Amino acid sequence: MGKTNKATDKQSGMGNQVIKGQNFYHDRKKASYLRLLKSGKPTRDRSGKIVKAADFQSTEAKVGRVEPNRRWFGNTRVIGQKALEEFREKLGSKVNDPYQVLLRQNKLPMSLLTSSNAEGGLINKRSVLAVESFGSTFGPKAQRKRPKLSVEDISELAKDTEEKNSNYEVEKDVNMREQEEKISKEWYLGAGASKRIWNELYKVIDSSDVVVHVLDARDPVGTRCRQVEKYISKEAPHKHLIYVLNKVDLVPTWVTSRWVKHLSKERPTLAFHASINNSFGKGSLIQLLRQFSKLHSDKKQISVGFIGYPNTGKSSIINTLRKKKVCNVAPIPGETKVWQYITLMRRIYLIDCPGVIQSNTSDTDIDIVLRGSVRSNNLESPEDYIPEILSRVRKEYIQRTYNIENWADSTEFLTELAQSTGKLNKGNQPDLHVVSKMVINDWLRGKLPRYVLPPGDQDGPEQQTTISEADLGMMEGINQSLTKIPVMTEYLPIDLKNEKSQKPQEEQEAEQKDSVEFVPESSSTDPEKATEEKPAREVDWDDVFGSVVGEAVNADPEELQNENDAEDSELDSEDIDSDDSDAERDQSSKKRTHRLTTNKLNTTKNFYQLNKVNGKSKSKSKSKASTKLMRLPGSMRSAKTKPKK
């Protein structure tokens, strides 16, 4: 018999105590273990027959039979030629539509529908034996280098040759440009085209579900990477690609509307002005990203990658969406070095990408520099690019910017500009190198007004332009009121000749309705019926998100709160509340009241000045006298002592 520790029993107070309802010999753990050992055996009677079967044991088992049906031995799904042809026609009309999204994928033979021009909807796969016979591939007559011909007969070869001759251009011929390529270009002209930056681009494309192509509104075609678009459409057709026209505050509104109309035929296009305090298009872009997050509801979150040319404002757009500085921004290209993840909401992440320049044989050195792809400090001879700037900008804008009336050539223009700005060398010689960099920086940063019209649209502002749903397709979710764009650049009346013509018809009708006077209650018309017949005003997403400063939010805050999804994070709600408060603050600042002057004699007194606390009088006169007494030089008296007479 082992000795029990009585000290522990006394301390715990549980010695020789039996808990009611619990077995004295076995605790709960021991009982469950014994039950586990007995559960594997059936219960038998005296004769050995099983009275109660054990777990997972049964004395009777039903016989399994297969239903005699032909469906078990035939095709599980059959589709006819008519249904296949109808589906092929619908698919051909919707497959290239950027506004159509595949919601549910059906189990259909999609490989039969890849070639719509094939006979019967089937792919005309060329026979392997017709191109490479068995004897020439295997055996003693096998050729190690077999010619792979893309044509079968001479007629196809002649047809292919005619197509190549019709599409031939001397400027794009690589063989004709061999001598030009032998001449070494300057190292700074290859900025943005290095292998490291292209690897960063491919990381962003692979990691993102939605790709946002940022374009410069002053030259969208020049800042468009068609090579990247082809790669996405070929290698990743399931990814969504949209265009964002940034810097719309530097061009007239009618130019922005035409570019939106032109680019919306290919991809969804948004006009955007990046600014933390006074932005445009922020609400529309956030709403579009929310729609994409709902389409990918099976994923926990989606990633949105921003790509484009250098210095187009990719990082500025991300800072605008977050309403604070989360990415480094600079007015020079190449500020973003590596890709960066930023959290916009709980289900939406943003990816910043460094600017990429595609290698195009038709682009000259002047085009590369004037698109903002190269830093002006790296240019060895910036004077060579000034004549092109003077030819692309109106003379009136140059005269207004630099206060120079006339000039014969670019050298004379730079000389006068150097003398007026004080950029001189020894002997009062003009420093043309420094002045040329100043002009190039003014060109890139928007101080010189300029814009490019869409291809095939060279009529100028005289042509009336209106945006309608028929022209833009299904653009219900991203309609924008372009009249609210805060244009910062001052243009001449020639460039703003038909600014009112680009307003949508709905806004013009709304302005006409607002101009009608209000009918008082004393009139014969019923005010309740009038309010019922009056259509509700459509709230713009820019007004909801408060991106346009000075525009009051007319929607009720409860309705806006109900519209927001519960999945959105606190970051988005804080932005909405702060933007609404900014708009209300700007609206209240417009109604200024007279400045209220204060009377210092009739100032109010607090509780401690009028009453005695702890037997002490807190009057102002007594406190002043005591402080004067304390400030006397050499006095060590306290505030309680009274001065002697």
Automatic annotation (TrEMBL):
Skewed-composition ranges (Basic and acidic residues): 497-516, 526-539
One cellular component term from this protein's GO annotations in UniProt: nucleolus
Ranges where the CP-type G domain occurs: 198-359
Keyword terms of this UniProt record: GTP-binding, Nucleotide-binding, Nucleus
Compartment annotation: Nucleus, Nucleolus
Residue spans of biased composition, Basic residues class: 615-625
Principal location: nucleus
Gene Ontology MF terms: GTP binding
Region described as Disordered: spans on this chain: 1-22, 497-645
Gene3D superfamilies given in the database record: 1.10.1580.10, P-loop containing nucleotide triphosphate hydrolases (3.40.50.300)
Biased composition (Acidic residues): 556-583
Membership in a protein family: Belongs to the TRAFAC class YlqF/YawG GTPase family. NOG2 subfamily.
Role of this protein: GTPase that associates with pre-60S ribosomal subunits in the nucleolus and is required for their nuclear export and maturation.
Protein name: Nucleolar GTP-binding protein 2
Organism: Zancudomyces culisetae
